[in-house]
Amino acid sequence: MAKYVDGFVVPVHRDRVEEYRVFSEKAGRIWKEYGALDYVECIADDVKPGKLTSFPQAVDLQPGELVVFAWITYASREDRDRVMEKVMKDERLPHDAAAMPFDGQRMIFGGFKTFIEL
């Protein structure tokens, strides 16, 4: 059972989906190399704007963009903090916002304790 999960939602322009996929596969391998249990990214398929809130509204989705919803699981919060520290220092990943294949300013990110897992 995963004890800790990082979740994130980002907008990705349709023209950059393949570039984002390559970036994310590399990032996922690095996260797992440092100890993440799972690394999953999903492209929106049935996601519509809501009346009050929604995934598209949350990331201020622009024309030509898709929503990506993702999560990374860890054995514990301590493991997550250790893995994240190493990932953030890893030279194999770009750390400049301009080099990212998505708009990081509209990224939603957070850590969550597992509450229910069936």
- CATH topology group: Alpha-Beta Plaits
Number of domains: 1
Count, helices: 3
Please estimate the helix content.
25-40%
- Class of secondary structure makeup: alpha+beta
CATH class: Alpha Beta
Which spans of ≥5 residues are poorly predicted at pLDDT below 50?
none
Using the alpha-carbon principal axes, give the shape: globular
Write a compact overview of the structure shown.
This protein has 118 residues and is of the alpha+beta class. It has three helices and four strands.
How would you describe what is shown here?
This protein is α+β, with helices and mostly antiparallel strands. It has a single domain, classed as Alpha-Beta Plaits, CATH 3.30.70.100. Helix content is 29%, strand content 27%. The chain is built from three helices and four strands; from the N terminus they run βαβαβαβ. It has a four-stranded antiparallel β-sheet. The longest helix is centred in the N-terminal third of the chain and has 17 residues. The mean pLDDT is 94.
